[in-house]
Amino acid sequence: MGYVYEKVTYNKNIPAKILMQDKPGGRCNTTLHWHKEIEIVYMIHGCLHVKINGHESEIRDGEFYLCNSEEVHITRVDDMKANYTYLVILLSYTEMKRFAPDIDDSIFKVTHSDSSYQKIKRQILNLLGTLKSTDPYIFLVQDCYLRTIYHTLLSECKTSKGARAYSKTTVKITHAKQIIEYINQNYREKITLDDVAQEVGFSSQYLSKYFKNITGYSFIQYLLKVRLEHALKDMMNKNLSVTDAAYDNGFTNVKSFITTCKKAYGVTPRHYKKKDA
């Protein structure tokens, strides 16, 4: 079954994608997603909550989290209007597999108390210092810092998944991916918790608890979130009206679209579009 996942385009000349994020809290909340790349997020200003395979943690100023390849994750913040600044580094899966062919049977574990945590953090700070450089060959310096992160992960943080311990997690991830795919394919339609439960072979009651554990949202909250993001994108990219964007993306009425947008971003869809223009 072809699961929906986030496709990553790397920065030119380096084995990673580096993104500096500086935006209001409402735009830091992601939908449930996964990708092959190893993700490192370093918090510069604010507090970011992340759920990885259903396990929640948070990072504050000067801290980072690491999400392994194919782990299902979602992020959120508490203050929708406050500004948050953080750096996202997505390490190339292909490059990592070139160094470690057994990467699919391995995970990387990094905790605050590990010396490896501080080593990786130093390289993140080094990378931060290069982002405003006008040097056309700065990618050579960035490549050096990134490969030091690769080396630290491979030599100090890599461990076997373990057949028993990871089998339950693998099943959990598989179900989450099925749910992501089903919602992403059907959010424009009238779908219910019962529909999704039938798709993955769960009872509705169990799915409700499972979904809340994985995402931190109820099913309907998450479905509205997905519809909202698609509707706002259509307003921005296709210049759709509020009404057309609402109905084209599964909202039962325009009021529901406006209410959901206000809850997420504190403004109406029309004002959101003006602010982003």
UniProtKB/TrEMBL annotation:
Pfam families: AraC_binding (PF02311), HTH_18 (PF12833). Residues 177-275 form the HTH araC/xylS-type domain. SUPFAM superfamilies: Homeodomain-like, Regulatory protein AraC. The keyword DNA-binding applies. Keywords: DNA-binding, Transcription, Transcription regulation. It comes from Anaerosporobacter mobilis DSM 15930. It comes from the Bacteria. Transmembrane segments: none annotated. This is AraC-type DNA-binding protein. GO terms for molecular function: DNA-binding transcription factor activity; sequence-specific DNA binding.
